[in-house]
Amino acid sequence: MRIITFGTFDMFHVGHLNILERARAMGSSLVVGVSSDALNLEKKGRYPICNQQDRMRILSALSCVDEVFLEESLALKPDYIRQHQADCLVMGDDWAGKFDELKRLCEVHYLPRTPAISTTELIEVVRSVPQR
Ligand code: C2G
What we know:
binds [cytidine-5'-phosphate] glycerylphosphoric acid ester, single chain, 5 strands, 5 helices, alpha/beta, Rossmann fold
């Protein structure tokens, strides 16, 4: 079974690794759509800390990831699923219910997020460290 997932994976952390490893374990291959810098500006109002080339390089280097491509639009998910012949979409449960319409194309599963870690919290922690 071919698994597909999507995300920004900015300031890559253990919550990202956990969901990728769990997604990969559900099938025989894992393809990851990495949100482009422009898509992030559109959906979050800011650019990621790490640019799309670097984020894609980090994901490509992981043993649980078989293939990486750039996700340029949220609306193109059906096309990406078809292009990559994915049988199953896996996302964190912060997206629960949001992609249910794609069940006409493939299985859709939402996995529990890793608690107490996020890119936003990492940025806040780094910002709060006193300057020397
Ligand atoms: N994640 C997780 N646990 C965390 C943080 C993130 O399981 N503590 C998961 C998210 O649920 C998501 C994946 O890691 O499935 C990537 O998270 P983000 O980089 O925050 O992705 P996001 O910006 O939500 O982009 O098309 C959908 C978007 O591209 C998703």
